[in-house]
Structure formats: structure tokens, C-alpha cells
Records
---
Amino acid sequence: MVCRVDTGEPSRCVSGGMNLFDIKHHIASLAAVFLALALGILIGSSMVGSDAITQQQTNVIEGIEKEFNILREENKENAQGLIQAQEVMSYQQQFNQQVSPLLVRNKLQGRKIAVVDLNYSKEHEGLSNVLRAAGAEVQSVTVIDLSLLRDENLNRQTAGMLGKSGKVKTEDYLPHLARLLAEAIISGENGDLVKFLDENDVVKISGNYGPPLQDVILVGGAESKDRDYFKKFDQVMINALLKTGYNLYGVEDSDTPVSYMRYYQGERLTTVDNIDTAYGQVSLVMAMYGYPGQYGIKESAEAFLPPLE
């Protein structure tokens, strides 16, 4: 059984063998077979008086009973093992939550950071908490949901905010939108556009935009290939942010269906591919502290963790 422990997320286990549902189903099937055989024997015994047939039927029943008892014991053992694994995961999660702040303490003292979540699949409060534990100030958290622009009315209004009229495809103005949002995060400009996007939930913002700012963390990846906006949006935003001279980092969750790690690495960003775990959050802090690289658990990673000091 393999278990993964996340911070702020429910722990998950994957069993390598037969799961409890399969075992219960198997037991129920055997019980049905057992009853059918018993009924057949009862009927057969009234019709045929052969001792050989009776003995053969008895042997079959005893074999089924033996297998049934074995499966029942295995079911009990698996249930107990599951309970024990859940207890271990709970202790591991508590350990991670208590040890992580100690590992990152004062590593990012005084750093001003903006977090931009382009994935929009889950909350990343754990990331912000670890950054604060490291001494950083999270100036703003921006969560972007471009899928909402598929709505025809909202798409038309957004295009109008960008100076476009008529029937316009979302993909046609995404690069322009990315540049304006990058400018807003860096300088605090484009307030009317940001307000419009915020009121329509395309962008959700906490904190304040503008200077002083030193680091920008992009949380990327996509839920599906049809929501992969990297070339039209993410890449444009990355290029706009890099021109400012700020430190830029690309991260994603360990279970993101469509990974952006290769994209980010192609832009020469330091990356972490398991930011939803305590290990990934510590990796990011240490990378920002002075150990750039490609960290995590996926094929694109060069190491699991940076050096720990």
C-alpha cells in the first residue's frame, strides 16, 4: 500500500492488491455459490442415493467453506491494516506540519512575494503559510480562472474592456490580457480591468498589487488539454514578468493532470512539481533561499529536495 501525505489536503492511500470492496464482493459470490450447491445437493440426494456422489458433493462444500473462511480472515486483516495505515498517515501529517516551519524559519526574511495561481483547481493556503513561516510577506494572491471566459456574454464584455468589438474569440485577446495582468501585479496599474475581472470571478485577488516586490510564484498546470492556455497566456505573462527583473518560480500540484513543468523549465525557471505537499513547499523555500533547480517527484525533476541547511 502506498500513502501520500499532503499539507492541508486529505491523505490518500492506494492499495496494490485486492481492495475491501472486491473482497466483500468475492465473499458474497462464494456465499451464493455455496447456497446454490447446498440446494442442489439436497435435491440430488433425494433423487440419487449414490455414496460416491454424496462424498464428492461433501468435498466440494468443504473446499468452498475453507476458501470462504480464508477470505473472511484476509478481509479482517486488510481492514485492520487500513486502520493502521490511516493512523500512520495522520501522525506523518502532524509531523510535517510541525517540522516544516522549523526547516524554513527565516530563510526568506523580508522578501516581498506575489503568488499567481493559474491552475484554479484547489486552495493553496498551505503554500502561503509556509512562505510566511519563512519570514516572507505574501503581498498578493491572484487566482485566475480563464475557463469562465467561455461564457459568450462575459467573453464579449472582456473583449470590450480590451478595446475589441464584434465577435472575438477568447484566444485572440488572451496574450493582451496576460500582459495587462502582469503589469497590474507589478505596478498596481490597470485598476478598472482588474476590478471588472474580480467582480466576474475571472480573477480573485487578496492583498495589494504593486511595489515593493521581489518574487513571483506561478502555480500552473491544467485540468485538461482543452484548458491548456500556456502559449496564449502563461508564457506571455512569464515574459512580461521576466523583463522586470523579478525572481520568477514555476510550481504545480503533484496530481495536476496536465503538467507545465517542461514549459516552465523551457523558460529557465526554477520549478517544484509537488507544491501541494510539505516536501514541495520546503523545496520551494530552499530554492528561493539560494538553491535554484528542478525539484519534485515527476520525470522532469532533477532532485527530490534541495540541500537543507
---
Amino acid sequence: MEKSTRKVQMRTVESREKLLNASLKLFTEKGYYNTNTKEIAKVAGISVGNFYNYYKDKGDIYYELVEKYLDESKIAISDVLEHILENNLGEDEIIQFIVEYVDKQMERAIISDRFFTDLQVIAKDIENLSRILEEGNEQIVTILEEFLSKYPKVKKRASYKVMAMMSFTLANKISTSVIVTKGTEVYREYLDEMIAIILYYIFGIEWRRV
């Protein structure tokens, strides 16, 4: 009985993962509004009927993709800051580490320009999506604030909360331009601006790529 239950649970996890991957592919290539559940099920190799065993509609699956992206972002940011604290990195090491990290993360970002553009509109249509975006942003600010309070080399210009909010708000705003210009000539310019903001407002380091 237990083995049978585990098999069902494994199939459920596998099916949901297939649907998530198929949806991400289609939302990235075609956009949210040009994708339907029939297409998602076909790409996932799952019947349309089974789709509705896991998700009520494409908005439901889009919500989960955004939630997953936010969770992965929070974990990645926490890991980076913990690495810097635990290894007591010097200024040159921090610059190298942050530059390499941001370069890699933005190249691998699951949110394409189309996905991101749709998100701005969809957030108004899908119930609770705006709320989880706001909560996710607030949690990232808290992570930054806690780091600043522990970082021995911090150059305090205001309260840790204000510094965290300022660095996140500015970097987040620039990241919009980074995402929508990916693959264009100005992509690197915006990416470097985001890196410079992170280094200056969190670590007090002035930087320009040479």
C-alpha cells in the first residue's frame, strides 16, 4: 500500500514538473496570452484532462512559476551573502564574486523579456499574484538588512533598513532594463549598472568594468 502511494506521489510530482517546464517554455516563446492549456498539455506529454487534475487554469500554473522564481531568487541571494560573511572576503574578492555571480544569474534567468512584460499586466489579473510579488520583495529587503547588520565592513549611510530598501529598489529597477534588453547591444551597459549599484549601496565599493 505504501509503495503504491509513493508511486502515485512520484507521478504527481513528475507530471507537475513536466507541466511547469512546458508552461515556462511556451510563456517564454509565445507569451502568456498566446498560450492555452491544450498547448501546455501537448508539450508536457500529458492529456488535457490530466492538466486539470493539477492546475485549474494557465493562470494557476503561471502563479506557481513566479512563486518558484521568487523562492529561487531568495535562496540565491542568501547563499551569496552568507558566502561573503563566512569567508570574510576582501574588496577585490567581493567585486570578482559579485560580478561573476550577477553575470551568471542574468544569463541563466528563467524570466525572458516576454515573460517579464506579461507579468506587469498579469499581476493585475491573477488573484494574489501582486501580493506574492510584494511579499517576495519585502523578504529580499529583510535578507539584505540582516546582512548589513552583520557585515563588519559596512559603510553605514542610513539605517540598515533604508540602505537595504534603496539598494534593492535601484537594482530591481535596473534589472528590468537588463531583462528586456538581453541579446541587444545595450544589455552589458545595463548589467554593469546593476552590478555597480549592488557593490556601492551594499558594500560601499565604487566599481566600473575595465
